[in-house]
Amino acid sequence: MNLPHLEMRQTSAKIGIQTTRATLEQHQAPATLSIEQPQGKLSIETVAARLEIDSTQALIESGRIPALESVQRYADYGRQMGQQAASQASAEGDQMMRIEQGGNAVARVAKSRDTPPAEVTTLGFVPRSLERVKINYTPAEVQLNYTAERPRIDVQVNRPELTVTEGTVDIYLREQNQLDMWPVGGMFDGEG
Question: Which of 17, 108, 129, 179 has a CA between 20 and 30 Å from the CA of residue 187?
Answer without folding.
Answer: 179
